[in-house]
Every structure is written in C-alpha cells, then in structure tokens.
Amino acid sequence: MNKTYIRLAATAVMLVSAATSAYADSLTLYCAAEEAWCQQIKTTFEEKTGITVDMTRKSSGETYAQLRAEAGNPKGDVWWGGTGDPHLQAAEEGLTVEYTSPMRGELHDWAIKQAQAANNKTIGVYSGALGFGYNKDLLAKSNLPEPKCWADLTKPEYKGHIQMANPNSSGTAYTMLATIVQLMGEEKGFEYLKALHANINQYTKSGSAPIKAAGLGETTIGIVFMHDAVTQTAAGFPIVTVAPCEGTGYEIGSMSLIKGARNPEAARQFYDWALTAEMQSKAKDVKSFQLPSNKNATASDLSPDLSTIKLIDYDFKKYGSSAERKRLLQKWDTEVSTLPQ
C-alpha cells in the first residue's frame, strides 16, 4: 500500500514538474505594432531563448479592450507596442504590474518618464511623431494643392480624400484627438474635428490602415504616425510624409506586463530582452522606422528626426488617464461621428 502511494505521489510530482516546465517555456504576447515587426519579434525571441511565443497582433485600442475583458482570467503575459496612452490607462486600472528592468540605465529619458508616469507599470520602447501622408500621384491627378498643415485638411477641396482611424479602436487616432485638443484648445479643437469629419471618406479600425490605403491609391491622404508614412515610401509607394506646420503630438510606444500572467518569469525575460539595443536595432530590417528607446540602438536613416519637428508638450499623464480618454471619446462619438458627411 505504501509503495503504491509512493509511486502515485512520484507520478504526481513529475506531472506538476512537466506542467510547470511547459508554462516556463511558453509566452503569450499581445503585439500592437505592424505585423512584420511583431512576427520578427516573436521569431527572434524564440530563436534566442527556446521559449515558444503565441503572438496576437491587434491595434492599441483593441488590445486595451481585450485586457479589460480578460481581467478576471488573464490569457496574455506581455503587451508590447502601441501608443502609450492605453498602456497608462491599463496601469491606472490595475491591469498591468510594476516591474523595474535592469536595462533601464540604457534608455532615453522619455522612456523612463513614461515608466514614472505609470508607477513603473509600463515603459517606453519607441517613439514617433503624428502627422499625415499623401499620395502625390493622386494629388496631381485630382489637381489638389499640397497639404502642409492641419488646417489644410479641412478645406472643401479635400472632401472625400482623407482617411483616419476611429479613436475608439486605434491608439493612433486617439493620439490625434488628444493632440488637436491640446494644440487648439478643446472648443476650437472639436470644431476642427467636425470640419475634418466632412472630408473623411472612412474611419478605419487600425491606425496605419489609412496610409496603406493611400499607398494603394484607395485614398489620397492618410492621418498617421509619420514613421508609418515613411514605411510606405520605403516600400516604393508614391507617399509624401508631412509634419503639420502648426505643430503635432507624438507617441511613446510602450510595453507592459499583464497582471495575473500565467508565465511571469518568461514575461520578465522578454521584457528585459525587448529593451536591449540588439533587439531594437532590428526594427529597421522590417521597415519599421520608429525611434528606439535604447540609447545604443541604431535607427534607420529614413526615420523621422524628432528634433526637426515642431512637437507640442504632450500631456501623457492627463490624456493617458481612463477618465479623460472616456470623456473625450464620448464627446467625439456624440458630437463628431454622428454628423452627416
């Protein structure tokens, strides 16, 4: 009887050990960057560590909504990339956990400030300025003037020629909404958004979709982060990137560890690796032109130089709060999206 019990106990220990090992050798990654970059990150980490990565690619807003929906039973381990505002909101709502990486000493100040704003529940992994791009062939074909400023996009001649994402699903579009409010003031900012709405031919789900559509000749102008417009130019499409003359906001693409993660050790290992210069320098290989947060990483020569762009003093803490995001989105839904076009 005792021998049988011992054998059963030993078997149970082996099964638990095997299950623990399986968990330790896997990672669930929610990636909110471009598909090619997400795939590169997945593959490179797997090759380097032997840890199997189950990667899902969604927009920033969709990922944030998924974290909220799964809060009672988290399925993800790490959320990498996407605009910083929803990462800050997730931190505020207790959806992510505090972690201080040993790699922090190699990061730019703006990446550390992002972490400090969230009590170390997120950190900056890249940065990029908001702007727009246009298809120069379509512009010429329609005999339209070159847009250089935010104000230009509300001119009647651009009616039906502009795409942007929906700020409810896209971190890019929410950054645009928050940028306009900060740049012009809330009252004038919403008057601008109403005027812009009259010229929009489609609100997309993904933030980069408008400039991809412009590259394919499906729309003339796309409101996006400037590095996404550069990606289309680098791919051979006739896209011209514009830094709006009035000034513009910017993103701090971020990374967070999900609260209640099933593979916390693998998640921290990924987190540390994702902050290395070696990892971040590979972005340019898949035509991702954001500026890396590691000071020693190398960006492409095609990456927009933020020092030459008129940037606003974007208030990440305020516009990254859940209450402000909810308020602005409700106002946009009520006052802008319902207007006729």
Could you characterize what this model shows?
The structure is a single chain. The protein is of the alpha/beta class and 341 residues long. Strands 1, 2, 3, 4, 5, 6, 7, 8, 9, 10 and 11 form an eleven-stranded mixed beta sheet that branches. Helix 2 links the parallel strand 1 and strand 2. The N terminus is likely disordered.
Give me the secondary-structure topology.
Elements: H1 2-24, E1 26-31, H2 35-49, E2 52-57, H3 60-69, E3 78-80, H4 84-92, E4 96-97, H5 109-117, E5 123-135, H6 136-141, E6 162-165, H7 171-184, H8 186-197, E7 200-204, H9 209-215, E8 221-225, H10 226-234, E9 239-242, E10 250-258, H11 264-274, H12 277-280, E11 291-292, H13 316-319, H14 322-335
Parallel strand pairs: 1-2, 1-3, 6-7, 6-8
Antiparallel strand pairs: 3-10, 4-10, 5-8, 5-9, 5-10, 5-11
Helix pairs in contact: 3-4, 7-8
